[in-house]
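[job 0417] fold request received: Flagellar motor switch protein FliG
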Amino acid sequence: MANVNGVRKIAMLLLGLDAVTATELMKGLNPEEVQEIAMELAQLDASDQRDPKEEARIAREFHGVLQKKVAQRFNVKKFLNEALVNILGSGKAEEVRNQVMAVTQRKDPFINIRSATTDELVLALEGQHPQTTAAVLGELAPNKCQEVLSHLDEQTRRQTVRRMATLDQMTMDMKHRIAGMVNERLNKFKGEVLPEGREQTLRRLAVVLSGLDHKLRDELVGEINKEDEESCTMVKNLMVTWEDIPSIADRSLQECLRNVDVGKMAVALFEADEDIAQKIRANMSGRAVSMLDEEISLMQEPMEQEVIEARDEVVQPLREANEEGTLRKEK
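[job 0417] inference complete; emitting structure tokens
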């Protein structure tokens, strides 16, 4: 805490938080450290020299440190698979692993199911009673549950969700039987992936067409339009996606980003891949980047759909330039 810059960083981080969260973060500090930070906060407030850009940078740095800490957590699976062998030898280690798994599964029959991929789960649950599907989805993390639900047909999805509302009435014996059956099916589909969806197929076609001469590309797109207008629209949109931004030439990107609303850009960049974020920032003016950082520091965490819509709005000028034949990509 003797490092003044360190104290200033902490104070600037706290300035971007609400009072309750800031209080929670400071609970583990001793009184001298709290006093030091409080004095720094008071000086920042009195000087009226808050720097939103710097506060946003510090918040990102803090987030990066937290992510590294999570990545360095004790790896139980690695311990069971490697460390035990070194300590006990392969034979005894296998015996201990089996005992651990048996005890764990008795306490939590869904433990192996949670580690399955979304594709494996969808394939294993295909054709199963909605009650079975509901029991499994009720044990998954929210994100994975949403992914599996999105792959179910509409009728199965409705029936499954209705049954998820009454999972508290399911006995432990029934949960064990369902988990056992699903585990058997998962073993059959280990490593399997779902068939390619329509969007993936059209994306491959879009990538092929986008590499053709502008005139020939438009002729072929026109042929698709004669057969299916909806597919034609999807193909044109999939010629340029958010993930393609790093491959866009700087001049083209600069021209297309010029009129994008800074608020929308802030939402679009929420949890964006680093290469995409860096490409966008590198092709914005210094003033625009400052405005963007200020917007990011002030905005609330956006909903997933808001991020999707914002990214689509950012990409739209690129799609229009591509359709006009003026979009350039890196060589």
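[job 0417] notes: Residues 4-71 form one domain. The longest helix spans residues 304-324.
[job 0417] exit 0
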